[in-house]
């Protein structure tokens, strides 16, 4: 759901959204009514450190416009970093959340290669999918909130490299 529709749900006779996850939201979208988003709506705004299409500063600006000084316990701004180990790499560029990359990552959690330029990696499993599942579980069922919100270990954890070291954690800069 676009941020504007989330903000204007009452005006369009839609139910108030319980959760919203904005991953690299497009920088030219104006959200003049973002301040109308309910403080009860659980929300994540996610930016990639290496995203040159939708820069982290743009995502943070949109987050601040929409959510502060509302109930900070119900929303987070999350910064995803890049990390590497030997020949394995995780890139937090704009294509990271799509599973598509010009530079195929060999670190695909043991899955078969589903095709050229396509992969599932730790960012999919431990970042986007985990956060979304935790967010919707918290909003609709009252469980798994610590996987989506609150700057918790469960939220920040992105897996373990083959040498046993942890993948660089998510950075929760607003919560």
Characterize this entry briefly.
The protein is 23% helix and 16% strand. The protein has 175 residues and is of the alpha/beta class.
Written overview of the protein:
The protein has 4 helices and 6 strands. It has 175 residues and is of the alpha/beta class. It has one domain. The protein has a 4-stranded mixed beta sheet with strand order 1-2-3-6, with helices on both faces. The longest helix is centred in the C-terminal third of the chain and has 20 residues. It is globular.
Which SSEs are present, and which pair or pack?
Layout (H helix, E strand, L loop, with lengths): L2 H5 L11 E5 L18 E7 L7 H12 L7 E6 L2 E3 L2 E3 L31 H20 L11 H4 L14 E4 L1
Helix-strand topology string: HEEHEEEHHE
The number of distinct β-strands equals 6
Strand content: 15-25%
If you average the pLDDT, what whole number results?
79
Kindly list the characteristics that best describe this protein:
alpha/beta, two-stranded antiparallel sheet, 6 strands, 175 residues, 4 helices
């Amino acid at each position: 759901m676009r941020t504007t529709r989330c903000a204007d749900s009452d005006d369009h006779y839609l139910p108030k959204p319980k959760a919203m996850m904005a991953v690299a939201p497009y920088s030219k979208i104006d959200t003049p009514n973002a301040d109308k988003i309910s403080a009860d709506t659980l929300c994540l705004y996610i930016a990639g450190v290496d995203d040159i299409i939708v820069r982290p500063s743009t995502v943070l600006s949109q987050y601040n416009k929409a959510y502060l000084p509302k109930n900070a316990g119900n929303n987070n701004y999350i910064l995803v970093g890049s990390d590497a180990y030997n020949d394995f790499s995780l890139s937090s560029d704009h294509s990271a959340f799509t599973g598509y990359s010009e530079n195929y990552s060999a670190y695909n959690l043991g899955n078969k290669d589903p095709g050229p330029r396509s992969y599932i990696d730790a960012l999919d499993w431990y970042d986007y999918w985990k956060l979304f599942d935790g967010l919707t579980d918290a909003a609709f069922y009252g469980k798994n909130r610590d996987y989506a919100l609150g700057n918790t270990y469960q939220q920040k954890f992105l897996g373990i490299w083959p040498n046993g070291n942890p993948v660089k954690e998510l950075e929760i800069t607003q919560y």
